Amino acid sequence: MKVQMATIAALVTAALALSGCSAKSATEGQAPPAASSSNQVTQPQGSAAPASPSPTPAAGGDNKSSSATAINAESLVKQNCIACHGDTLDGKGSEKKNLQKIGSKMNQEQLVNQIANGGGGMPGFKSKLKEEEITAIAAWLEAKK
């Protein structure tokens, strides 16, 4: 399990490094939120925000993926999904809830729909998560094949 989490962390880090995206938040330019806010996305410890204020498109020029990687999808998954899907996304023994290879079963559009609207016993998250966050999670999960 530790190897899987390390692999996931390495893949996310590599994707961020390759995309050259910035860690610019949706609230940039506004007053910082209060320290007690429980719904803010945090950057993993030990990583520094890139100096560049604008994202560089990923290889191939697909700017859609670089905006999704600016949001820490893995952190959002940990905050919102592990209660049902487990900390290793193994579904806690339920094949129906297992997300470890979900990218080989569903594309990003299907994942966005599932996360936003729920279904099959899963609640929808469109009222809890922003559209950009749902898209980032879907892109992150689609890479799991």
UniProtKB/TrEMBL annotation:
Region described as Disordered: 25-70
Keyword set, alphabetical order: Electron transport, Heme, Iron, Metal-binding, Signal, Transport
Composition bias type Low complexity, residue spans: 42-61
Annotated Pfam families: Cytochrome_CBB3
Signal peptide: 1-25
Superkingdom field: Bacteria
Domain Cytochrome c stretches: 68-145
Entries under InterPro entries matching the protein: Cyt_c-like_dom, Cyt_c-like_dom_sf, Cyt_C_IC, Cytochrome_c550/c551-like
Name of the protein described by the UniProt record: C-type cytochrome
